[in-house]
Design goal:
This protein is α/β, with parallel strands linked by helices. The protein is built from four helices and five strands. It is about 35% helix and about 25% strand.
Length: about 120
């Protein structure tokens, strides 16, 4: 099971998403147990093509098409697709600092979560 999934929901904002990913992807090393999940909320631009091109270089980058429009639908889709211990949402127009991922992984490990992180539980 993956340790952390960073979900990015997007709709017709390929340029913003590209900028976000250009800041985020270099922060991930193959030794980390991190997955990036792009939820395409029924975009009509070239969002899908951008992600498919990036997937050749970044095997931890996943793409899911969500036909129902709206951020709540996209986030629910991310929750359904998440198979990790932790899930974080990042906006497609956010540009994370160079150490954003490292800092957040460290907060999780020290159990000092004071940001918008949510632990997923399986109900039995």
């Amino acid at each position: 099971m993956t340790f952390l999934t960073v979900a990015i929901c997007t709709y017709n904002r390929k340029w913003f998403l590209q900028q976000c990913l250009s800041e985020l992807l270099p922060q991930i090393s193959y030794s980390q147990d991190v997955r990036i999940l792009i939820i395409d909320n029924n975009s009509t631009d070239e969002t899908a093509e951008l992600i498919k091109a990036l997937q050749f270089k970044h095997s931890y980058l996943d793409y899911v098409f969500c036909p129902e429009q709206g951020l709540s639908y996209a986030r629910n889709c991310a929750l359904e697709q998440c198979n990790s211990v932790w899930l974080s949402f990042l906006d497609d127009d956010a540009y994370p600092n160079d150490d954003w991922l490292e800092q957040n992984l460290e907060l999780i490990k020290r159990r000092e979560i004071r940001r918008v992180w949510r632990r997923l539980f399986t109900l039995v």
